[in-house]
Amino acid sequence: MAVEIPYRRELEFSYGELIQVAPGIRRIIAENPSPFTLYGTGTYVLGSGAVAVIDPGPADPTHIQALIDGLGDERISHILVTHTHMDHSPGAELLAQHTDASTYAFGPHGAGKLEEGVPVEEGGDMEFEPDHEVRHGDVIEGGDWSAECVYTPGHTSNHMCFQLREQRALFTGDHVMGWSTSIISPPDGDMLAYMDSLHLLLERDDAIYWPTHGPCIDDTQTHVRAFIEHRKERERQIIDCVEQGIHRIKEMVPRMYVGTPEFMYPAAARSVLAAVECLVARGDLLTDTDISLDAEYHPGASADA
Fold first, then answer.
1. What integer pLDDT is reported at residue 99 of this predicted model?
2. Cα–Cα distances in Å, from 4 out to 180, 215, 230?
3. What is the pLDDT of residues 158-212, one digit of tens each?
4. Do 100 and 73 touch, CB atoms closer than 8 A?
5. Residue 149's domain is classified under what CATH number?
6. pTM above 0.90, yes or no
7. Which of 175, 193, 218 is the last residue of a domain?
8. R_g of the chain, CA atoms, integer Å
9. Same domain, yes or no, for 213 and 252?
10. Average pLDDT of the residues in 77-84
């Protein structure tokens, strides 16, 4: 039986409007809808007076101007970035034209892999360099708000969530979303790290999640457990494919992603590749070549046990 993920996609909003979504939390959504962003990038504002901005979004002057207009006389004191995909961090450079606020993030694109000697191909915001690099457990203090840094690599190696401690509200970026699972694309994306990051959330007491895309998630533990089981189901599907004589990822994807539009297959293949890396590392799959989209995979000793 397929894992039931309690998806949530409905959201009432108007582009260009900064609205209160919870005590101490406001959001404005950029007009960059797509199959990867749902309605667009949700930029969050924490506190009042001297505020923090989370994920300024794409390099869209209209979005940044709407944010500035919505804040009026309030001052941006901090800019927090969950990760460096092009729909999350490039807006920080445009925002710098309106504020001298410092940026806070784990590091530049690929930071969590580059320090391990793993090269990361271009594709993210290669221009972004945070003013302050933060680590797991760090606390950023503002006027009437404080944010705890929660390091959650997997979707990207520099992915950082932030908890508004006054509300126990976790801003989850693309790590956990209500409307979709996250794409894990090696080498910067890492399924082993992603699964560890999901388990990390199960150890926490966050009351609510605010993803950068889509609506909030209020049943946090149920949602995370469903995500974990979904990834385990994908692993079982891969092993089933290999045991049935389907040895290449390209042929696995249509069988695993029934109902998914074909234009999404390349992204799906990247997530399958990430899962295959885990299976090979555990000995559940074998390959005679380097792990890649084009390699052939065969059952391993662990899968037969």
1. 96
2. 12, 18, 8
3. 999 999 999 999 999 999 999 999 999 999 999 999 999 999 999 999 999 999 9
4. no
5. 3.60.15.10
6. yes
7. 218
8. 20
9. no
10. 98
Extract long-range pairs of 41-47: CB within 8 Å, 24+ residues apart: 41/87, 41/88, 41/212, 41/213, 42/210, 42/211, 42/212, 42/213, 42/214, 43/67, 43/91, 44/171, 44/210, 44/212, 45/18, 45/71, 46/142, 46/145, 46/147, 46/164, 47/142, 47/143, 47/144, 47/145
147 neighbors 80 (Cβ within 8 angstroms): yes
Q: Yes or no: say if 111 and 120 are a contact pair by the CB < 8 Å rule.
A: no
Are 212 and 240 contained in the same domain? Answer: no
Please choose, from the candidates 2, 14, 6, 3, the residue with its C-alpha nearest in 3D space to the C-alpha of residue 177: 6
Distance CA 46, CA 142 (A): 9
Average pLDDT for the chain: 95
Asked if the bond preceding 90 is cis, omega within 30° of 0, the reply is no
Q: 100 lies in which domain range?
A: 19-218
In this structure, the answer to whether residues 92 and 167 fall within a common structural domain is yes
Tell me the pLDDT tens digit for each residue of 122-151: 789 999 999 999 999 999 999 999 999 999
